[in-house]
Design goal:
- This protein is of the alpha/beta class.
- Helices cover 34% and strands 21% of the residues.
- It contains 10 helices and 8 strands.
- The chain has a 6-stranded mixed β-sheet, sandwiched between helices. A two-stranded parallel sheet has the order 3-4.
- Helix 6 packs across helix 10 and helix 8 packs antiparallel against helix 10.
- The mean pLDDT is 96.
């Protein structure tokens, strides 16, 4: 029996190693944590593998992690000592990495593999909650350093066949990512940009949705919400892979860290 294609996701992954923290800072992630825990039931079956497009990896061309046993990249600072010894021990999938690169090259996009790349916190922070058993292979894909939204949408369209092969495509970033504007000053711009995302991602599909994302800098507070779009580009890949599938907001919080609006979305 042929199974329906898996959905795609754009997840706001939060800060650093938050699943391994305790106290008030961990409680700030209660809403995000519950949304991540809900993903397996929402999918309805265990994926064969996960393709994670992470905003914490930039390369000149799209690059897929191809190691069979990925290490860890502790790409954060100022956290407790134990968070620099944590492990997310899921295997890699060299065959999937090669398949992703072939699909990207087939549409004229430069792509390569990296055998040494380990899991960064854009990957292991969400996966620790989504699949703590760490038994599903994970392949990371970089964003492209030129930050071209159209190229990332095209990459998503190229990777879309993987959805029919049991691969869950996830874009891991943040709907608001301005580390220099935090707290109450971020309340209005984060809410304004999030409202635009809701309109575009939930109420538009296909070419209209992609056209809006290509021109995302015209959105309200766009460059305040994303001075650099590294954490927004994974969304472009998830949307490109979604084709005509409708979007749904699966996590929304207007008081993250007290005042910031953040969201995650599912397509399909």
């Amino acid at each position: 029996m042929t199974q329906s294609p898996l959905p795609t996701y754009f997840l706001s992954h939060g800060g650093g190693p938050w699943p391994w923290l305790d106290g008030d800072i961990r409680r700030a992630y209660d809403g995000l944590e519950q949304s991540l825990k809900a993903i397996p039931d929402a999918i309805g079956r265990l994926p064969q593998a996960i393709l994670m497009v992470t905003g914490h990896w930039e390369e000149a061309q799209f690059t897929a992690s191809a190691g069979a046993t990925p290490g860890m990249i502790y790409d954060y600072g100022g956290f407790p000592e134990h968070t620099y010894r944590i492990r997310y021990s899921a295997p890699g999938d060299p065959r999937l990495a090669a398949r992703a690169v072939a699909l990207l090259r087939a549409v004229g996009l430069g792509a390569d593999t990296d055998d040494a790349r380990g899991f960064d916190h854009g990957t292991f922070s969400v996966m620790q909650v989504v699949r703590p058993e760490a038994d599903v292979p994970v392949v990371q894909v970089s964003v492209r350093r030129d930050m071209d939204p159209a190229a990332h949408l095209l990459a998503g369209r190229a990777l879309s066949p993987l959805r029919n092969e049991g691969v869950l495509i996830v874009g891991s970033g943040l709907s608001y990512h301005n580390l220099r504007l935090w707290g109450k000053a971020a309340a209005e711009p984060s809410a304004a940009f999030d409202a635009w995302l809701q309109e575009v991602l939930v109420n538009k599909v296909s070419t209209a949705r992609e056209a809006a994302l290509v021109n995302w800098t015209q959105a309200p507070s766009a460059r305040i919400a994303h001075p650099r779009e590294d954490h927004l580009l994974p969304l472009m890949v998830a949307v490109g892979a979604a084709s005509n599938d409708a979007g749904t907001c699966v996590y929304h919080q207007d008081d993250f860290m007290g005042s910031i609006t953040t969201s995650s979305f599912r397509f399909g």
